[in-house]
Each structure stands twice: as C-alpha cells, then as structure tokens.
Design a protein that fits this description.
Order of helices and strands: HHHHHHHHH
Distance between the termini: 98 Å
Number of helices: 9
Helix content: over 70%
Radius of gyration: 24 Å
Strand content: under 5%
Number of strands: 0
Length: 317
C-alpha cells in the first residue's frame, strides 16, 4: 500500500515537472515569437495615433479602447483560427493572403501621400467638420487587421515546430500581450499633452517645465507619428511583398536586396544598422511602386464608374 502511494506520488511529481517544463517552453516560445514580430509592433504603434488626431480630448481614450478591442477581436476571432487552420491544412495559402494585405497597406500609404501632395487628403477633416467615431474606429481596425495578420503570421512562423495546441496557446498569448502593449503605448501617447497640462498647472519647478514642454511638443510629435505611420505602412507592405514574391518562386528582387544588405553588413560597428536600412528602404520602394499601381488602377476604375453613372443619369433625364 505504502509502495503504491509512493509510486503515485512519484507519478504526480513527474507530471508536475512535465507541466512546469511545458509552461516554461510556452513562455519561452511566446517571448521569442513576440520579439520576432517587434518590427511590425512598432509600426502598429506608430500608425494608430493618427486616427485620433483632431478629436475631442475626452473621446481619445474611449476611441483607443474601441480600436484595441477591435484589434484583439481581429487577432483572436479572425486571424488566429484562420492562420492555424491554413498552417495545418493549406500552408501555401498564407503567403498570397499576406501579399494581398501588403498591397492594401501600400495602397493606403500612397493614397495618403497623394492626398497630402495634392491637398485633397482623404483624412484631412479640417474643413469637413468633426469625424464620425464609428468611421474612425472602422478605418483603424481595418488597417490593424493587416498589421495584426503580419504579426500573427510572423509569430506562427517562429513556432512552426510546436504542436497544434501549443501553437494555439502561444498565439493567443502573443495576441493579448501585443495588443495590450501597443494600445497601452498609444493611449499614453495621445494623452501625453493632457499629462503635460496637468503638470504645468499643478506643479512647480522642473515638473512644470516638463509639463509645458509636453504641451508644446506633443502636437509636433503627433505630426511626426502621422508621417512615421504612413512610412511604416509602406515599409511593412513592401516587406510583405518582398518576402512573398521570393517565397512564391520569383527570387531576383529578394536576392538583389539581400546582396545589397551583405555589401554593407560588414561595415565596422554599424553594419547591422546599415543592412536594416537597406532592407527598409528597398521594402518602402517596393511598397510605393505597388501602392502607386493600385492607386492608379482604383482611380481609373472610379472614373469609369463615375462616367457610367453620369451617362445613366443623363439618359434618365
């Protein structure tokens, strides 16, 4: 009897050690997957604050919260099950789907650039009055869907060797951690001017100086983030396309960029940074070219449809 109890306790201890090891493995894999997606996380953080520019201060955090909930929904309800099922049964479809998302991001970025250059930006609402919050949130969540898909697929690629249930748990944890990280930082950014105002009004000395600096500086920071966000969409969209065309079997462009990276990688002290810059610039150029083509096609289609509608109206009258 005592021997049986000892054996049972040994089995329980072995199971406990196995469970602890599994938790450690999941934690390590989660950290690795999150770190691998860090570049896109930074892009997501830079893109989002532009959506709350010009809105009433008291509505900024509620809108960020709505976007965060939409982002988590994107990751857990849409992307996670689709990514897992595709990786399990149709892994070859992941790359084309991501490339469609990359083309969309590139289109969005070029559309913003064209709007800024022409003075008729799609998001310039100074003359149109206040923006509808539902429209703002929908646009932000739609863009987040592409960025979140890239984050989740990068994470999935990092843990491809794990079992199905381990992948499920790790990706769910990555989704929650990254969403909290990104939108926590976004919330802090959009409220930084209010924090500065509070410091300027209620503090003295150094704190008051810092507060005044925040109040004066945050509008410029938000403007810079808007530019960074647009550039990030070009970079991420182009990077998705660069990797995608290589994975689909067309290698010359990727090999050329890789060769350029190798050419600067051995520069003492800054080789890694230069290689990253080369890849980033090449991705942005690809994003700009593809985005420009999509904008031209969409503009042409819009003109044709408008012309047909005009002719139909003329015939009715």
């Amino acid at each position: 009897m005592a021997g049986g109890l000892v054996a049972l306790l040994d089995d329980v201890a072995a199971l406990a050690r196995l469970a602890a090891a599994s938790i450690d493995d999941v934690g390590a894999a989660t950290g690795k997957a999150t770190a691998k997606a860090a570049g896109v996380v930074i892009d997501d953080t830079a893109v989002t604050p532009q959506y709350v520019r010009g809105l009433a201060a008291e509505r900024e955090l509620p809108i960020v919260r709505r976007i965060a909930i939409g982002s988590l929904r994107n990751k857990l309800i849409i992307i996670l099950p689709i990514a897992l099922l595709l990786s399990q049964f149709l892994p070859w479809l992941l790359t084309p789907i991501l490339m469609v998302g990359g083309a969309y991001l590139s289109y969005e970025a070029v559309h913003k650039i064209w709007g800024a250059v022409s003075g008729h930006g799609a998001h310039d609402h100074d003359e149109d009055g206040p923006r509808d919050e539902d429209t703002v949130v929908a646009g932000a969540v739609r863009t987040d869907l592409i960025l979140s898909a890239e984050i989740m697929v990068i994470a999935l690629d990092t843990i491809a060797a794990e079992g199905f249930w381990s992948r499920l748990i790790i990706l769910a944890v990555v989704a929650v951690v990254i969403t909290v990280l990104v939108y926590g930082v976004v919330g802090l950014i959009v409220k930084m001017d209010d924090i500065g105002l509070r410091l300027a009004d209620t503090s003295s000395g150094v704190a008051q100086t810092i507060g005044r600096g925040l109040v004066k500086g945050m509008p410029k920071v938000m403007s810079v983030l808007s530019v960074v966000g647009t550039a990030a969409m070009l970079w991420v969209g182009g990077h998705i396309l660069l990797n995608g065309i290589d994975e689909l079997g067309f290698h010359p462009i990727y090999e050329f960029v890789h060769h350029m990276e190798d050419a600067v990688h051995d520069v003492a002290g800054i080789g890694g940074v230069l290689a990253w810059i080369v890849n980033t610039l090449a991705s942005a150029v690809i994003g700009f070219v593809v985005g420009s083509i999509v904008v031209a096609v969409m503009t042409g289609v819009s003109k044709v449809l408008a012309s047909r509608r005009g002719k139909a109206v003329a015939q009715d009258h």
